[in-house]
Design a protein that fits this description.
Alpha-Beta Plaits, binds adenosine-5'-triphosphate, 24% strand, Rossmann fold, homodimer, 6-stranded parallel β-sheet, alpha/beta, 4-stranded antiparallel β-sheet
Chain lengths: 219, 219
């Protein structure tokens, strides 16, 4: 059970705080806006309306006891974000995650003590764009320089067959991790006797050249 | 080479448009704010300052020719977002992706024709929270909302055993992707008869709750 400090309870901050809480951890949430405090008060036990740039408040919080401090103040108040990050660092924060809008803001945040800078809108924009581009490969993730994960619609040669028949590991050198039919729950690992259907979404992992070979079975 | 329409060029929309452009696709970007148009004009070839709720403008655009239309208007103007989505649907858009802040807004967007609703801040908040929770495991990567990859030292119960004995897939519902002994090359997939040693670094993939169960075998 860990303790986290979340400063700024916009959509992003509230989501960080909520997810940590749902996973059984202790969260203290700070925001200067009453409306934001109200919006999360049912989901997050310890919330405090205050100005996080107030040095008295921060020093009263035992900053060193938090596993991590997450600064989720938006671009509108980027100077607050920078000041809060600096103050957290001065108060001995173990780990500071901060949100930014632009790379330049990110650089400043790193300089004043952020260990990690997040660009939520920019990152999600890239992911959405990539999933639109690879319309039959839904998502692609690099695990290590030679190994990747591929999420794709089941290629034609898998349809109507099951894993025992397909023998993916030996024939293609890829491992299937999960299958999702028709927007149902993702099943991982897929049962050995499950017969794949058109439009099933499968997640594979393997070496890049092995994955390429499988993709080219479509042509 | 595909054509995309991006409406709303905030951080999220600009990132979608930029990523599509960088990947060689044609993007038309619309925004009613001059400052937003200026901000992206160097990176996105076709941008137009206009009110996207203007039916004349939308009908002049050949909406049916776009691979997808991405509505990235923020919560501040959610009514615009809803109206634009409706108009795109009426104009025969093949695929509409829309951004929303809350689930309720998302429901309305689906009702008026969105094929996919994205919650950038909420999703990134969850990802950040989850990567913070698993900090005693060397690395953690989210593959999809329910499935993650975990890199960890081989848990005690694996040491001295091989995969046939361990039967990870059936006992724990996780798939082992790779093993790395003593900073040697990463081996993927691990041979079925390889006996795991203390400090081996293994990479697993599976549903979040399945991975949790495996981690708790340490206690
Ligand atoms: N000095 C401060 N102390 C505490 N909270 C602050 C301070 N400055 C700003 N905030 C809070 O930070 C929160 C997030 O900022 P804002 O809403 O501008 O960002 P945003 O980028 O729109 O957020 P999101 O994208 O997460 O919804 C707001 O709820 C605001 O009240
Ligand atoms: N009717 C409209 N026509 C065209 N553009 C619009 C319209 N209404 C809003 N926009 C644009 O949508 C863009 C995104 O909206 P806004 O900045 O409120 O969202 P946001 O959530 O802050 O964005 P982001 O998080 O992506 O930075 C703005 O640039 C705004 O000018």
């Amino acid at each position: 059970k860990k303790q986290f400090l979340v400063i700024g309870l916009g959509r992003f901050g509230a989501s960080v705080a909520r997810t940590l809480t749902q996973n059984g951890h202790n969260v203290i949430g700070l925001d200067s806006a009453e409306e934001r405090i109200q919006r999360v008060s049912e989901e997050i036990a310890d919330v405090m309306k205050c100005d996080a740039t107030d040095t008295d408040i921060l020093s009263s919080l035992g900053i060193q006891d938090f596993e991590a401090c997450i600064v989720c103040i938006g671009e509108k108040y980027i100077q607050n974000s920078i000041l809060v990050t600096l103050l957290l660092k001065e108060n001995g924060a173990k780990k500071i995650i901060a949100k930014a809008g632009t790379k330049t803001q990110g650089k400043v945040l790193y300089k004043v003590g952020a260990d990690m800078v997040i660009y939520p809108e920019k990152d999600m924009g890239e992911r959405v764009a990539r999933s639109l581009i690879s319309s039959n490969i839904i998502d692609f993730l690099e695990v290590s320089p030679e190994i990747s994960i591929l999420e794709m619609r089941a290629p034609r040669m898998m349809i109507g067959k099951d894993l025992i028949e397909l023998n993916l590991r030996h024939k293609y050198g890829v491992t299937i991790i999960s299958v999702q039919s028709d927007n149902q729950k993702i099943i991982s690992p897929p049962p050995l006797d499950y017969k794949f259907r058109k439009d099933d979404v499968i997640t594979l992992i393997g070496e890049n050249k092995a994955l390429k070979r499988l993709r080219f079975t479509e042509d």
